[in-house]
Every structure is written in structure tokens, then in C-alpha cells.
Amino acid sequence: MFKPLTILVLLIILSIASFLFALSVGSLPLSYMDILEVLKGGGSDITQTVILELRLPRAYVAFLTGGLLSLAGMLMQVLLRNPLADPYILGVSGGASVGAMLAISAGLVSSLISVSAFIGALISILLVFGLAHGRGSWNPSRLLLTGVVIAAGWGAIINFILSVSPDQSLKGMLFWLMGDLSYVQADHLSDPSMPVILIAGLLFSLMLARSLNILSHGEMQASVLGISLKPIRLSLFLLASVLTATAVTKAGSIGFVGLIVPHMIRLLMSSDHRWLAPASVLAGGSLLLLSDTIARTIIAPQQLPTGVITAFIGVPLFLYLLNRGYRQQELS
Q1: What DSSP line would sit under 247-306, residue for residue?
Q2: Residue 303 pLDDT more than 70?
Q3: Domains of the chain: residue spans and CATH
Q4: In terms of C-beta density within 10 A (0-12 exposed, 13-18 middle, 19 or more buried), how is residue 109 classed?
Q5: pTM of the predicted model, to two decimals?
């Protein structure tokens, strides 16, 4: 296990390198000097258009989305005390998907698709919380079961919409379901919602870091040490849900980022959430940014859904981490 500060510095360098790689690679290859010239306000009109209107907004949204998903996954794993928990396990992405697909089938523009997706995610959050809470107290098992059932219900609605939708809408729906950043436009750079929510979520997670460290060792120990379980459960649920809803609204359902990144960071550096939270944001943002760059260039001029690349990367990486964990348990 490496020193946390060393890993954090390396992740910052990786994040910067990922942005430069995303801005330089494409149908029009650009040098790092070209990129620097544009960022300083110079460069040719073509270079400015490619970077400022196409590549930079997409890279910006990809990095923020990866950070949101990784942070949400970390919080979900603590809340449910389940290492297999990911940001989508409580059905938030299902509600967002239904809202987005209804908007796509109605022929709405991308901004209204995002609004519809966020409304669907909000409805799902309220449903899961209301049904899991009921008239009494709620616990992680009840919350998990409620979320799984709600997610299954959204899945049935999604299949119904796909079955009755016209052919011209199906490709857009399928890309959205697999995670797609091709809808990102230049005006996303001036939209403060994603960075504000990500920074607020990170700061709130750091404030709760001590409680998260204790809670990850079990609820009984948390109760003995004076942690009030109900408020922190509610805080984690709402924060993780808002982070997930924001990410899904902008990029669709991109899998594996929120599942594997917290695992990877725990193995590399520490389970201390004071380090784990910022490292997860940086690693998740870099992973999704690199995946999206590959998705839009590997079979250019055609583009793949970003979620396909994250799955290709995530499946073998998760199996490797799983086997490594088993080997460490056998040796200990």
C-alpha cells in the first residue's frame, strides 16, 4: 500500500494528463502547444472551434461525471455496508432513464432531455426513501431491497418504452442507456451545477469522514462510539442520490466507474475517507475521461457509447481486484 499523499499527487498529474490527451486526440490531431495557444486565447479559428466547442466541453463533463459517480459509489458502499454497491443500486438511474427516454421519444432537445432525466431521478429517490422508511425505522437491508425492487420496476418500464418506440428514436435511447456524452454542448462549460454539486459533495464527505470511517467497521461500533445512525444514513442516502442523479442526467447510465474506483483506491492507498473521497473523485474523473476519449476515437468517424468502454475496462479490472482480495485474505 502506497502513501496516501503520493497517490493523491499522482492522481492529480493523471487528471491533467488525461485532459491534455483528450484535447489532443481526434480526427484533427493537435499538439500540446496548439492546445496551450488556444487556452491562452490564440490559435486559428478551426483549432479554437475544435477545442473550445467540441473537445473541452466533452472532456469537462466526462471528468465531472466520473468524479460524481465515484464519490456516490464510495458513499453507497458505506451506507449499505456492501462492497458490491454502486451508484445505481437504488434505482436512481432507472428513474432518470425513463424520464430521458420519454423525452427522446417526444423529440425534445438535449437540454429538455436532461431536465426530464433529473425529474425521473428525483421521483425514484422519493419513492425509494418513502417506501423504505414507511411508518417505522429503516436499515440498510430494507433500503437495499426497496431500491432493487424499484430498479426492477423501472427496468420493466424501460423495456416497454423500447418495445413501442419508433425506430428513429431507438438508437438515441440505447446510446443513452449505455452512457453517452455525444450530447454535450459548449454551453455546458458555463453551467455551474455539476462542479458545484461535486465540490459540495466532496466537502460534505470530508466533514463526515470520521463518521464514515467508524460506520464502515459496523453499526454496533458506530453506536458505541456515539454516532447517531439515522441522521448519517439519511445524509448518505440523499447525498449519494443527488450525486448519481446529476451524473446520470448529463451522461446517461455509465457503469463500473462507481463500483471499481473506490475498491481500487482502497487497495492502493487507504480506507481512510479523508483520503479516499478526493482520490476517488480524481481517479473516477480520469477513468471516465480516458474512456470517453477512446470511445470517440477508436472507430472514428463513428463513436461508441462511453459505457461500453468503461465495461470493457471495468470487468477485467474488477475480477483482478476481486482475486487480489481473496489472495490477501488467504495469506492473512
Answers
A1: HHHHH----SHHHHHHHHHHHHT-S-HHHHHHHHHHHHHHHHHHHHHHHHHTTTTS---H
A2: yes
A3: 4-331 (1.10.3470.10)
A4: exposed
A5: 0.90
